[in-house]
Amino acid sequence: EVRLHVTKRQDGKARWCADVIALIADPALTAPDFDFADFGEGMVKYATQADGRMDTLPAFADYFILYYNKELLAARNVEVPKTWDEMFEAAKRLTDASKQVHGHVGRGLKNANVVLWSSYLLGTPQRDMIDANRQLITDTPDAVWAGETYRKFLRDVSPPGSIGFNWNECQTTFMQGRAAMWVDGIGFAAPLEDRTRSRVAGKVGYALVPRGPGPEHHCALFGAGYGIPEASRKKGPAWLFIQWALSKPMQLRMLADGRGVPARASPFRNEEAIGRSHFPREFFQTLEASSKIARAGLPEIVPVTQFRDVIGTALTNTISGADVAAELKRATAEFRPVLEQSERET
Predict the structure, then answer these.
(1) Tally of CB atoms within 10 A around 37
(2) Neighbour count for residue 86 (Cβ, 10 Å)
(3) What would the pLDDT profile of 167-184 be if each residue is shown by its tens digit?
(4) Closest CA to 170 of 240, 227, 91, 116
(5) Which tens digit of pLDDT belongs to each residue from 187-204?
(6) d(CA 268, CA 252)
(7) Which pTM value belongs to this model?
(8) CB count, 10 Å around CB of 32?
(9) CA-to-CA distance for 281 and 82, rounded, in angstroms?
(10) CA quadruple 51, 120, 213, 142: dihedral positive or negative?
(11) I need a labelling partner for 88 at 20 to 30 A (CA). Which of 28, 123, 243, 311 fits?
């Protein structure tokens, strides 16, 4: 299993895994009902290296979505926001500090917070954190806009102490009914619907992340794929196993059992699974729609953890009042030689 948001670039450069495109095209090895077109567009691109090699088959995805508290929005007659600007205005209306209820909750802790900032950046014309020449572009006007958006959500409409929030604190806050909206990974949905633990079970709404000022609509994507070692002498049997493990029935079982979000699209339209699930229909609709607009939520680089530390520290500093442009300029200058060195080494 390859964690694409962590080691994709490293694995691709080292050519550790075999290209599965030729295996997919081989009728002697690939079942007639394999249906490669069933895999979500975002995950297929995610599993493909820059040189065109697909060295993993998409296994499961983590799409960032918008969670919202239906009861809180209805009480203030607030519609589900379609843009980040609409979401901020809605969050201001929904904040009631006297009741310890805030319009938004999000990650403020360094490293963890970068994926929220990148969700805003994906909505700009720039979209990415490195350009086509693999140069770092995290201090541009679009990156600053994303940083300003991040700061105002965390400072103005989120709970006190959000500077120390990771996903766990965000989830707990939302589960307690203390936040009206939360943008994070789909993998955190199950506890929200657990009636033994969550005060908002049955009241949770699911929607696509809002649009930004750019011409395209994207949500942040993280995920994993299954690969076959290039050095393997049994690539054929390994490919047969992967086909079974990521077949339509097995991917449907993954979704129905609550073990993860499949890379295939067909499970989201399975009426039997929808009918037996404790999730509402809009949960599945949001997943399928997200699979079509998903784009990598982190740069495909080797030192991705260090990138999250450096940029994340800058973002955390802005919550405390530091200038966004200055912080991103400093962080970009600090990380740029790290990236350049890693590119030379790989």
Answers:
(1) 9
(2) 15
(3) 999 999 999 999 999 999
(4) 116
(5) 899 999 999 999 999 999
(6) 8
(7) 0.93
(8) 6
(9) 19
(10) negative
(11) 311
